[in-house]
Fold these 3 entries.
Entry 1:
Amino acid sequence: MQLDTDGDAGEFARAKVNLALHITGRRADGYHLLDSLVVFPEIGDRLRLLPDTRPRSLALSGRFGPELQPAGPDNLVLRAIEALTSACGVPPLPMGIELEKSLPVASGIGGGSTDAAAALRLVPRALGLDLTRDQLLKLALSLGADVPVCLDQKAVRMSGIGEELHPVPSLPVTGIVLVNPLREVSTPAIFKSLTRRDNPPLPAFPDRFETCEALASWLEPCRNDMQAAAETLCPPITDVLAALKAEKGSLLSRMSGSGATCFALCRPHDAARIAADIEKSHPDWWVASSNRIQ
């Protein structure tokens, strides 16, 4: 099989940020139902094919690569590639792949899911496979409830257990700062700690968001229904939220997903300054910024 790798810089795997996350119910099988506005900033990991390397191997690089060592068969990137080649009836990928891990592990911004989704975009391109969107979505869902939303890397309303994706109004140009105190939070422990699982869904969306201030204003009465439990289990999250809220130009601060990553929305020109301020006062935290979300 001829691989198309010429001039391929790989695939960018954007962080998945829940600007609001409402827990609306629980299925009989234990899966929680949710209603969430998800966006993707220009912050993330990167996947690259490695010609002339051991087939199906995964090289890990980047700041957080060592935390995933050793890369066993349960790694979501390897599982995605295996599921893809198996479903398409093609031979296993005849080369290795590199994951440059820039996002913290287990941090509430979908690192593993967005990496798996990137593999589902990168490998078909390299192998010349023409998959329909429905085929990709089915493969994505087989890997985890958070993988389908990461395929398109565009703002979307996510409901059900994560498999129901609905369009949202175009978002204004908005800056974002992500901060993680580098403390892991157990998602199962948070779900176990929830005192209510039948919260109301997101409010009605407007026809459009004129400005980033309008987006923040609409989000203000929304929630992350996992945040209170996460702050109890991981008090540094409260410190991160306080630091973000105190920054001049911060329009809204909240935790993403199950934590511990938190975000602040801001005007695009304020993002880098806010990030620099946080890094200076808390050099032991992970901080990243983007002047655009999509």
Note: The CA atoms of residues 14 and 160 lie 22 Å apart.
Entry 2:
Amino acid sequence: MINVFQPTLGAAELDAVRDVFDSSWLGHGPRTRQFEREFAEHAGLTPERTIFITSATAGLFLAVELLGLGPGDEVVLPSISFVGAANAIAAAGARPVFCDVDPRTLNPTVADVERALTPATKAVIVLHYGGVPGDVAAIAELCRRRRLALVEDAACAVASTVDGRACGSFGDIAMWSFDAMKILVTGDGGMLHVRDDELARRAHRLAYHGLEHASGFSAAGKGVPHRWWELTVREYGRRVVGNDLTAAIGLVQLRRLPGFVARRREIAGTYDRLLADAEGVRLPPPVPDGQVSSHYFHWVQLDPAIRDQVAADLLDLGIYTTFRYAPLHRVPAYGGGGHLPGADEAARTTLLLPMHQGLTDADVRTVADSLRKSVDQRQAAAGG
């Protein structure tokens, strides 16, 4: 099977895990803090405000709590977005308000976001679709003017930039995903960054049971009372902190990340070259000048009458494709409905092709050739 997503792991990651085993310290510790520091340096962030957590979804739930969102509040987010963002909003009693997206880029424009704002809007969440930054700089400026919090769900954008500035650095709060299908993987895991110092300190507490100190061991001899095992709880939290075992994998992956992204860029270019003259296949728009994509997704757009049939043909040939993310304004749990033509068009036409750094040139040619053949056959059948 040629998978649509697939991590790249090897001896270096195994050696890092072995070192953690040998240290006898698997939990939140020195490697976690090192991963936070090195990731912060990678993204141009402040290490003290950067927290390794169990998932980007945990970061979304923390963001909603940190911003104090609840009943009567609205949060605008693109309909083509991951379900975790809408769940975090709705679980707090706030209302997710879905904005439209450009049907070709699948990212919201600043105009899409602005149309969805109401007096009840308290925050905006953006996703960088497939790793392409989109209008994040303009959306950030809009949020500043309107005094709205901006949350960047940078799950797809671990190496994406706008004019040299990392995605995730535009928002008040940002999170990245390192789950098993991402570019940089730790099995499960994510990184959270909080711009405001006090909110960042609160995020540290909420991520570990509301405790002022993560453990008695870390507090011993550091200015705390002589009974360092006693608890200081300011508010109710949970346990969503990362650990040294997964952080050790993340440190190796972070060092390999530039090579991963370079290979994905090559693959994207090869797909575009091989499919440039394919009738009935629309390629993704070029990445705008000044922007760098992580190339997490690579997609084509097909006639909706044949899109699902083409996906089935490819699966029969051992090529797994998919579509992400299903339009959330069509999910009854969030209220459903609404007229968002760009999101609906994108959901009917878009197909994600296999995209990961483990693909060989032969794999890419197989996918492109199989796609062309299936589209030709399905179009001929539909025309007949």
Note: The chain is about 40% helix and 10% strand.
Entry 3:
Amino acid sequence: MAQILDPLPPEQSENILCCYVNATSKIQVVRISNIANWYFERVVFPGQRLIFEAPPKAQMEIHTGMMASAILSDNIRCDRLAIEQPSAKEFDTDSVGIDPISNKSMVSSINTKVGDTTKPLTISRLVSVD
């Protein structure tokens, strides 16, 4: 997964996919500042999910927004935010739409009956306005 801005330095070869969810009702600013030659800072709105790549040793600082200020409310190691990346098997298109238990198609066929599908439109008229 590529970073939109500020890609990781090339010496950071082993990255993990991470996910952070802002479960508060306040805006948060998340920042990783312990990786040399890399700037990572994002605004995360309440309920928003942030998915990003980072080295396992990265530390995420979470700053919770208050009126005209922000308080450092947490520090989380990115290896604790790691999520499992999907395997190639999960993207196997040969088995899409097949129920693995009964081997029947999970999608019903589309009704292709040919017939008159156009009907006149009934329009109501406004008789008077009081």
Note: The mean pLDDT is 75.
